[in-house]
């Protein structure tokens, strides 16, 4: 407070003439600020700003690469899906074809078996008929002989003659049958 | 400052009491030394200058000493201020490539000048240190020395002079006139205006605040209270206005410094 009163007493200095002490102190004060900021604090923050920039750019890069990967996976998946669909269609087609072929084969086989069975049946019938006719011929011969023997009253057991006669008779019978038929 | 000052003058001095108005003047800007340190008479403005640098360093220390990738509040504010000078002034004027080197200097300059101006309206300090010509002159001197050394470093001796005087053959007949004008303008007047622009703004602003503060006190007597009220409103208005001017002048000071550096670095002046 007294300072001002005292100052007033002094002759005021022209305001545009710098006071050397003030100039020196001002420069020192500025150099202090500049020293701290330029040597330590601003490099500090620059490093962090750079790191932040890298982190942001790195994040963007990561996101980009992830997107590219996702895209490729999607394409792969789509390709696989298409392939699978194609494969399924192919398998269906094949199955249909195979089914048709099997049915054809089965039909042919059935036909063949049927024919075989029929043929076997015919053969059997023919054989049976042959056996039946043979045994019939024998039995009829014997019966006829017996009957004739009884009717004639003489023994006609001379087999040689007997069989000849019988055969002749039967042949005649057959001929007749043939004729009738 | 103003309150102290009012008290420093006769506190009983009021209007209608046969006492003249204790008008502020050049003596408002003079201080008796607080102490004498090593032959230097240490005054309040000097103390404020040193305190100012401590405030700036302290602020940036708090903001940037341990910077984080995800900034805290202090760091965020610091980064905003740093970015304002770096991008808003240096990159704008000098360019990113050439300007990067001068960013620390310009950031220091801006915040140093700003706090020096700001003291004007900070209670107890209440004195803009930059209203003493020595402080802006010192800073303008640094810029001036930088400008000259950069000019000669960049263009050589002859090229440097050509750059300073704006030598351009295409000017023809008026070339000598331009050379003389540019010589005085760039070399002699420019550093002076650089310092005086800041000094005068702060000087005038402080004078106004002190004047209205003193008037408020002086008018507090009888009918004078009405005028005192008006004067006090002016104190508030001027304080708000000074807040704006302080920032603007700090900005302009740094802007001009950048523009001079840019001039030294450019091919043609």
TrEMBL record, chain A:
Chief site of localization: membrane
Localisation: Cell membrane
Subunit structure, as described in the record: F-type ATPases have 2 components, F(1) - the catalytic core - and F(0) - the membrane proton channel. F(1) has five subunits: alpha(3), beta(3), gamma(1), delta(1), epsilon(1). F(0) has three main subunits: a(1), b(2) and c(10-14). The alpha and beta chains form an alternating ring which encloses part of the gamma chain. F(1) is attached to F(0) by a central stalk formed by the gamma and epsilon chains, while a peripheral stalk is formed by the delta and b chains.
Highest classification ranks of the organism: Bacteria, Bacillati, Actinomycetota, Actinomycetes, Kitasatosporales
Cross-referenced CDD domains: ATP-synt_Fo_b
Membrane spanning stretches: 23-42
Annotated protein name in UniProt: ATP synthase subunit b
Protein purpose: Component of the F(0) channel, it forms part of the peripheral stalk, linking F(1) to F(0).
Pfam families: ATP-synt_B
Keyword Plastid: no
InterPro entries (alphabetical): ATP_synth_B-like_membr_sf (IPR028987), ATP_synth_b/b'su_bac/chlpt (IPR002146), ATP_synth_F0_bsu_bac (IPR005864), ATP_synthase_B_chain (IPR050059)
Record-stated family: Belongs to the ATPase B chain family.
Keywords annotated in UniProt: ATP synthesis, Cell membrane, CF(0), Coiled coil, Hydrogen ion transport, Ion transport, Membrane, Transmembrane, Transmembrane helix, Transport
Coiled coil: 46-98
NCBIfam families: ATP_synt_b, PRK05759.1-3
Bilayer topology term: Single-pass membrane protein
């Amino acid at each position: 407070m007294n300072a001002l009163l005292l100052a007033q007493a002094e002759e005021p200095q022209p305001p545009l003439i710098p006071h050397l002490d003030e100039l020196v102190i001002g420069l020192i004060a500025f150099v202090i600020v500049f020293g701290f900021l330029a040597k330590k604090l601003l490099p500090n923050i620059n490093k962090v700003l750079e790191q932040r920039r890298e982190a942001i750019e790195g994040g963007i890069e990561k996101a980009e690469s992830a997107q590219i990967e996702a895209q490729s996976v999607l394409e792969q998946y789509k390709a696989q899906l298409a392939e699978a669909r194609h494969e399924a269609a192919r398998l269906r087609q094949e199955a249909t074809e195979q089914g048709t072929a099997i049915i054809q084969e089965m039909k042919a086989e059935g036909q063949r078996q049927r024919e075989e069975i029929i043929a076997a049946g015919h053969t059997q019938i023919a054989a049976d008929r042959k056996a039946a006719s043979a045994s019939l011929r024998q039995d009829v011969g014997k019966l006829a002989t017996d009957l004739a023997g009884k009717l004639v009253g003489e023994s006609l057991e001379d087999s040689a003659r007997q069989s000849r006669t019988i055969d002749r008779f039967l042949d005649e019978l057959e001929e007749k049958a043939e004729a009738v038929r | 400052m103003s309150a102290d000052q009012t008290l420093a003058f006769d506190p009983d001095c009021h209007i209608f009491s046969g006492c003249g108005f204790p008008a502020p003047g050049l003596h408002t800007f003079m201080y008796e030394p607080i102490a004498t340190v090593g032959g230097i008479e240490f005054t309040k403005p000097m103390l404020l200058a040193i305190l100012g640098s401590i405030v700036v360093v302290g602020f940036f220390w708090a903001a940037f000493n341990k910077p984080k990738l995800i900034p805290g509040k202090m760091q965020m504010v610091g980064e905003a201020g740093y970015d304002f000078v770096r991008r808003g002034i240096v990159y704008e004027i000098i360019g990113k490539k050439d300007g990067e080197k001068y960013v620390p200097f310009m950031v220091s300059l801006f915040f140093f000048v700003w706090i020096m101006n700001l003291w004007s309206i900070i209670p107890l300090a209440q004195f803009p240190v930059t209203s003493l010509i020595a402080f802006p002159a010192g800073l303008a001197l640094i810029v001036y020395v930088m400008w000259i050394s950069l000019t000669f470093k960049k263009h050589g001796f002859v090229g440097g002079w050509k750059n300073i005087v704006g030598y351009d053959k295409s000017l023809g007949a008026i070339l000598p006139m331009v050379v003389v004008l540019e010589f005085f303008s760039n070399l002699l007047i420019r550093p002076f205006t650089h310092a005086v622009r800041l000094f005068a703004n702060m000087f005038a602003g402080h004078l106004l605040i002190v004047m209205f503060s003193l008037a408020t006190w002086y008018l507090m007597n009888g009918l004078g209270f009405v005028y005192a009220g008006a004067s006090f409103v002016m104190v508030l208005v001027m304080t708000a206005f000074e807040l704006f001017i302080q920032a603007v002048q700090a900005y302009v000071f740094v802007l001009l410094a950048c523009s001079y550096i840019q001039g030294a670095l450019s091919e043609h002046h």
